[in-house]
Design brief:
- The chain has helices at 2-5, 11-20, 34-49, 53-66, 71-87, 99-126, 143-156, 158-174, 176-192, 208-218, 220-225, 227-243, 246-263, 275-284, 290-312.
- 70% of the residues lie in helices and 0% in strands.
- It has two domains: 32-139; 140-318, no CATH class.
- Helix 8 packs across helix 12 (227-243).
Length: 318
């Protein structure tokens, strides 16, 4: 329904792609809060685009109760409302608002503000965001979650990377600034991609994320090798934004920004943290050829089936 609101093509494929995504499907068979919380965040965004602001805030409040970092996605919905208000007919300076316009805007954003302020007050009283195992879930700056997100994105959007690859080459050929940005990104990556959380150690090797993280961090040549697919994912996300309709560019950019805010401050590298960002990107990205969606679908189904088999036989876990 969110995808239909943005008037995208191949909406049925988008639903199937999301449901069969290897990072999503296995959680439907596990008693985790991630899928219900994702449903509530999606409902909050759906109610937001349909201008049902109180219902959107209520859904967001329940989502926060399930997973506290979802306060970020309530803030995203509020930002979407603000962006829609100030940019609908071209950019308007917020300082230029007059009284009647303020009274039109306040009822739209006040419900989100109430939910966010209440959540932050509860976090302040508890001295932490997480409800359980608080000592292991202190807010920090963990760029390794960004790198794992980009690495998984390379797998999940592989057919799109293939289509965009000629454009990536042209971009590299025509701009020295892109090479400078890549070099600076590589330097930051080399010094910040790490495996420091106790729950990410190789001793817990039944979590596949720990195995991937361990070897891509400790083996130097492999660490620099996987920077390439990460960079390709970053290019693809840029082209998703560039190829979006003018009316969709702001919403996709907000998803990128709040997606980063939702998982970069979390201390443990955990693919579950990327579910909401990936889901919203999947429904908001521009419409491309239907054969690319089919390619992803044929890739997701066996991968998800394999993961379900391995998880049900206690061989690995996500």
């Amino acid at each position: 329904m969110i995808s239909r609101h943005f008037e995208h093509k191949n909406n049925d494929y988008r639903v199937l792609l999301f449901l069969t995504m290897p990072i999503v499907l296995p959680f439907f068979s596990i008693l985790y809060t991630d899928i219900p919380a994702l449903l509530l965040v999606s409902l909050s965004f759906l109610f937001t685009v349909k201008k049902r602001y109180i219902l959107a805030s209520l859904a967001g409040a329940v989502a926060i109760a399930m997973r506290q970092p979802n306060v970020i996605w309530v803030a995203f919905c509020a930002s979407f409302v603000l962006a829609d208000f100030f940019m609908r007919d071209g950019w308007r300076n917020p300082l230029s608002l007059r009284g009647p316009e303020v009274f039109r805007l306040l009822p739209r954003v006040a419900p989100y503000g109430l939910v966010i302020v209440t959540a932050l007050f509860v976090f302040y009283l508890r001295k932490n965001v997480a409800v359980g195992d608080t000592s292991m879930h202190q807010v920090t700056l963990n760029l390794s979650n960004l790198y794992m997100f980009l690495l998984l994105s390379f797998l999940f959007f592989l057919p799109y990377h293939v289509v965009y690859f000629p454009r990536i080459i042209r971009c590299l050929s025509n701009s020295y600034a892109v090479w400078v940005l890549l070099f600076l990104g590589l330097v930051v990556y080399a010094f910040t991609y790490s495996n420091s959380h106790p729950y990410n150690t190789i001793g817990l090797a039944h979590y596949y994320r720990n195995v991937v993280l361990h070897y891509t961090v400790t083996i130097t040549w492999l660490k620099f090798l996987v920077f390439m697919p990460m960079a390709i994912s970053a290019f693809t996300y840029y082209f998703f934004w560039k190829d979006s309709k003018a009316s969709d560019k702001t919403s996709l950019l907000l998803i990128y920004v709040f997606g980063l805010i939702s998982f970069v401050p979390l201390p443990m590298v955990e693919p579950r943290y990327y579910l909401t960002a990936l889901a919203l990107i999947a429904v908001s990205r521009p419409s491309l050829r239907s054969d690319l969606d089919l390619g992803c679908l044929f890739m997701y189904i066996p991968l998800s089936g394999l993961l379900l088999f391995l998880i049900s036989n206690s061989i690995i876990f996500i």
